Amino acid sequence: MSGQSSSDDILLFIMRHGEAEPPRFDDKSRQLTDNGRKQVTLAAQWLIDTYCDNRTIDLALVSPYRRTRQSFDMLSLDIAFNAMEISEDITPDGDPELVSDYLAARISSAQAKGKPIQRLMLVSHMPLVSYLVDTLSDAYTTSLFATASVAVIRYSVADGKGSLQAHYQGR
Fold it and tell me: What percent of the chain has pLDDT over 70?
């Protein structure tokens, strides 16, 4: 199943990184635990089974923190990404309105260039991922994200808004 319903719709996968080691001196350097790696592998399999049967995602935006980059690396073992960008704006204290505006501009730009994005993955942190889902979908439920969980938003380019389709919270 592709999960896609309209050529105007884009699937946004908003993911929290896998379980990381306890905080130490530098939050940015925290690494995934073995359990975190397993969590991300299970999330990748869920994405493949439910939304990415072709095992391809057009673009990934990844926080510069080590645990998110490691989560992306784990996803990349099972899913091909056509492009990946590190984004300084999608850190734990990132501004969801700014990120939402950037996503809209990035999606519109790709479409204008004749290379539309059909699936976009964002790998980031709490609380940003929670607030971003609310901002993109006008849900205002402030969903909590377990580690390696993924919210799926069907985003309408024409409307500039989306609707929450699913929220994988792990197995």
Answer: 95
13-59, pLDDT tens digit by residue?
999 999 999 988 889 999 999 999 999 999 999 999 999 999 999 99
Count other Cβ atoms within 10 Å, centred on residue 112.
9
Q: What is the pTM of this model?
A: 0.93
DSSP β-bridge partners for residue 61: 85, 122
CA–CA dist 39, 46 (Å, integer) = 11
Three-state secondary structure string covering the chain: CCCCCCCCEEEEEEEECCCECCCCCCHHHCCECHHHHHHHHHHHHHHHHHCCCCCEEEEEEECCCHHHHHHHHHHCCCCEEEEEEECCCCCCCCCHHHHHHHHHHHHHHHHHCCCCCCEEEEEECCCHHHHHHHHHHCCCCCCCCCCCCEEEEEEECCCCEEEEEEEECCC
Choose among 124, 113, 119: nearest CA to 148: 124
